[in-house]
Amino acid sequence: MTHPLRVAVLGATGRMGAQTCAALEAADGLELVARVGRGEDVGAAVRAARADVAVDFTVPAATEANVHAVLDAGAHAVVGTTGWDDDSRRRVAEHLGRLNAARGVAEPDLGVLIAPNFGLSAVLAMTFAARAARYFESAEVVELHHPDKVDAPSGTARHTAAAIARARAEAGLGPMPDATEAGIEARGADVDGVRVHAVRLRGLVAHEEILFGNVGEQLVIRQDSFDRVSFMPGVLLAVREVGSRPGLTVGLENVLDLS
Ligand SMILES: NC(=O)C1=CN([C@@H]2O[C@H](COP(=O)(O)OP(=O)(O)OC[C@H]3O[C@@H](n4cnc5c(N)ncnc54)[C@H](O)[C@@H]3O)[C@@H](O)[C@H]2O)C=CC1
Ligand SMILES: O=C(O)C1=N[C@H](C(=O)O)C[C@H](O)C1
């Protein structure tokens, strides 16, 4: 009989952390062994709980340090928190490289899976947008969230825009048409040359629209997470998979074989 995977949750009293704890408690083959909150020593908590995997749903300012502490404690990390950039991802990849090179043959290599969004509808929307991007002159992203969200634009919108920009560059497309001369601040954030607009509205949870335009036509891809329960199948999949994916994986699309 295989033992259940031992899982710690960082940010356990937050909106996503609490939902994740509930999902883990209801899941087969997974055991919630630590609820870690703000101000606690993450490494010590993960070690004390003998966690195999730690899930991070904290805040952008804390998430990178948490992941380094989890790795030093010998556990895999699944990360949903936003705020990651090329530099922080590179530092985690280097840390993983050093640790995995030093691990014994009997120990599985450590993995970190960072997913800007665990919702299936969001992962599919991002994937479809990346596929569509090369065929359109114009593309813009609108993300819409609850007003308690601390960062903008959302991690999902950044990931989406970056993928659109990559696809456009690979297809040899130049900058998008935009004649704006005055009021550029009303055109949203510029993420790799793609405009991203952030709406904050009471009643919303997490939503994204990707707009594509050509002369005489438009394509709109939209996804809606109406409830945080929608993120849980993706979180549980990531927890189960991260141990068999050594090194750094960014995006649940890689686990779902959509990339
Ligand atoms: N990848 C995904 O599918 C999703 C990602 N998110 C992201 O997850 C993060 C958390 O979102 P929410 O749960 O809505 O926020 P929240 O504000 O409800 O929860 C954050 C929790 O982290 C705790 N915390 C802060 N610093 C900490 C530290 N150093 N160690 C441990 N705990 C700490 C806070 O006390 C709080 O309980 C955000 O970055 C959000 O954008 C949210 C929803 C889905
Ligand atoms: O803060 C949220 O709520 C969400 N954060 C993530 C993001 O910034 O993309 C994922 C989802 O949009 C919900």
Question: How does this model look, in words?
Answer:
The chain folds into two domains: 136 residues, NAD(P)-binding Rossmann-like Domain (Rossmann fold); 107 residues, 2-Layer Sandwich (Dihydrodipicolinate Reductase, domain 2), CATH 3.30.360. Helix content is 34%, strand content 25%. The strands form two sheets. Strands 2-1-3-4-5-11 form a six-stranded parallel β-sheet, with helices on both faces. It starts with a strand and ends in a 9-residue tail after the last strand. The model has no long low-confidence stretch (mean pLDDT 97). The protein binds 1,4-dihydronicotinamide adenine dinucleotide and ligand LZUJQKHR. The site of 1,4-dihydronicotinamide adenine dinucleotide has 26 residues, from α1 and α3. This is 4-hydroxy-tetrahydrodipicolinate reductase. It catalyses: (S)-2,3,4,5-tetrahydrodipicolinate + NADP(+) + H2O = (2S,4S)-4-hydroxy-2,3,4,5-tetrahydrodipicolinate + NADPH + H(+); (S)-2,3,4,5-tetrahydrodipicolinate + NAD(+) + H2O = (2S,4S)-4-hydroxy-2,3,4,5-tetrahydrodipicolinate + NADH + H(+).
